[in-house]
Design a protein that fits this description.
The protein is about 45% helix and about 20% strand. It has about 325 residues and is α+β, with helices and mostly antiparallel strands. It folds into 3 domains: about 45 residues, no CATH class; about 150 residues, no CATH class; about 100 residues. It comes from Gordonia jacobaea.
Length: about 325
Amino acid sequence: MRSDEGWLALAHRQDNIATRAQLAEAGVDKRTVRRRVSSGEWKAFGPRVLMLAPGAPSETQRVWIGALHPCGTTALAGRAALSAHGLKGWEDGPVVFLVGADDRSARRAPDGIDYVRTRHDLTSLSVQRAGMATLRVEPATLTLASALNAGAWGEHASARSAGGLLAAVVQQRLTTAEALLSWCDKLPRLRHKPLLRGFLDDIAGGSESMAEIDLVTMCRDFSLQPPVRQRPRTDSDGRRRYTDGEWDLPDGSTVVLEVDGSFHRDHTSWEDDLRRQRRLSTPGRRQLRCTAVELRTEPEEVVKDLLAAGVPRI
């Protein structure tokens, strides 16, 4: 058996990141550690953690550094936690961990890593993902949404970002709006609960994107009759489709509003969407379109056209 087999197995499990104590347990003495760090083969991150390779750490290695740096219990949080659960499209941002409120070892965080102190029981909030304690989907989502609304963790953070995150997590089937609402009650120190509950109520009602939530908000703000959202339709080719919003009018006709997101800027997607609209067209169905940006920034213009098409106020 090779003498370095122990630490090589450790390095493989933790993406070349380990603590000095772990290396000692694997049979690596302090002199070897000093020699490899001095020669540049390994790199130290604070007094406890080493990268067992030269160069700058990757994103995955930064997560391991953040997990091993504190002495106490930690739980991966924020975008990295949700990425570990499978969320797509929200990977950018700092690596964030929750730590105990009295954990002094986390005060000097390595670059690019944030520690947030909490008095919550991290064990009950966490599951194991990729070898480390990671917040469950629901508390990870709610705490990140709260931080985004507060303007933390990114210059583009906002209430809209918070709502977009909640919608994305539900849309990608990582959890449900009902489960997130239930977890609001389990996190007594969660900030901005009324706002988050409002978003989740909209999502539970059928809104699975921020554009749909904006549609609901527009109808509420301008006293329009709320639409039927995501109504299933069968097009002329027999394919099942879902429309963004529909209003059934007293004369038996229907007004349809389709909201184009940023993906419609792609030429192929745009042509596919136009083809979809043609094949859903029938006598008595009037189809209107707007962009997600217009719905958010100039809702009064959309309302004007919906009223002209016969959509009633309430």
